[in-house]
Amino acid sequence: MYALDLTGWGWGHLVLGALVVLAGAGVLMGTTRGRILGIAVVVLSLVANFLFLPRYPMWSLALIAVDLAVPWALAARLVSTTSRRNPPPLRGPERGGGADPPR
Known about the structure:
Structural class: mainly alpha
Largest sheet: none
C-alpha cells in the first residue's frame, strides 16, 4: 500500500492540487459540473491524506477535517441551486392579480 516513496506521494498531491484548482474555478463560475468535480476531488484528497497519516499525522488530520466539511458544503449548495431552477408556481396576490377569486 505504501509502495511509493515521498517523491511519488509529492507528485500525486501535486496532480490532485491541480484538479482542485480546476474544480475551484468551476465552483466559482457556479457550474454544477464544477461542484460535482469538487466533491469527487475532495473525496480523493480525503483518501490520499488518510494514506499519508504515517508520514505527517498532524497535517493529515487537519486536512482530513477540512476534507470532511467541503463535500457537505458543496452538496448543500448544489441542492439549493437546483431547487431554484424550478420554483413553485405563484398563487394569489403574489401573481400580481390580487386575491384569489371567491369560491
